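Escalated from tier 1: NAP holo job.
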Amino acid sequence: MTAAPSRIAIVGVGKIAVDQHLPAIAANPDFTLAATVSPNHPGFAETPHFKTLDALFASDVAVDAVALCTPPQVRYDLAAQSLARGTHVFLEKPPGATLSEVAALVAEAEASGATLFASWHSRYAAGVEPARVWLADRKIRSAAIVWREDVRVWHPGQAWIWEAGGLGVFDPGINALSIVTRILPRPFFLQTATLFTPANRAAPIAADLGFRDTDGVTITMDLDWRQTGPQSWDITVETDAGTLALAKGGAVLTLPDGEQHAQDEEYPGLYARFATLVRERRSDVDVRPLQLVADAFLRGHRQSVETFDE
Ligand code: NAP
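Tier 2 regenerated the structure:
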């Protein structure tokens, strides 16, 4: 017998909820959209809509799960409130504004028996899993991440991203770290960082980082939000068997014997994973990408740069 679909509410109806979560839920028979919650969005015809999560939980609309698509700064309270009543929680990336609040959520999920899923959508890009498999048997010599995009194109009007806890250029940069922590076989850690922050903002617009793995292999990372023209979301790994290149945020994999394209299944993949976790009553919370970003804020040098206005 197949289980009834989980009744899920989307909390935070912004860009990612509309672009990715709604279509992925509509296409997955394990979920049915029960409600939306967002303070200013008007909601959608035929789906109950609430301005706050309190209002949803006080209503007679039943939900088994929530997908938290808000900015990270407000996510802890929404997640804790949901877990406390046994509601499963899908966290957009990054899983929180601090590591300690995510640790608290893990404990709260364990206590409640509900599933907590810290999602990393870029890990579901088409090239990532084959890259991980290929690298497992190789001697790695170095790796380089170049993530350069135009913030005016990709994050227009997102005031939260420039505030403390919004991560600035690490909001996209953490996606690269979610891939690299998945495909490289050994742990790595931050050695150097310079964060370039506009004089009128709280979060960096660019960053240069250096990491080293436990075998001494160096990994460089170049993040910049001031890129106009061609955009770069590239990861290159030099090995004893040649160069592995992941382009377009992990979607296109090039190995020494040629290029591999496949259909990207990022959000369908995330919802399939969430369904499995809910069914098996398990959580999945990998904080390594957020740990590396936190280390950059902890150990990095700060440079003030030109003010940024949209
Ligand atoms: P966004 O467009 O600014 O949307 C966030 C929405 O959250 C806002 O529209 C706001 O709704 C709502 N919100 C704020 N506080 C809330 C609260 N207390 N309760 C309920 N809703 C609240 O941001 P986004 O780009 O979708 O990003 C959201 C998260 O997804 C971020 O963590 C981001 O890193 C991640 N993400 C974004 C992308 C992307 O391409 N944009 C890709 C992957 C992941 P109202 O408009 O109703 O006020």
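The domain at 6-121+266-285 is CATH 3.40.50.720 (Rossmann fold).
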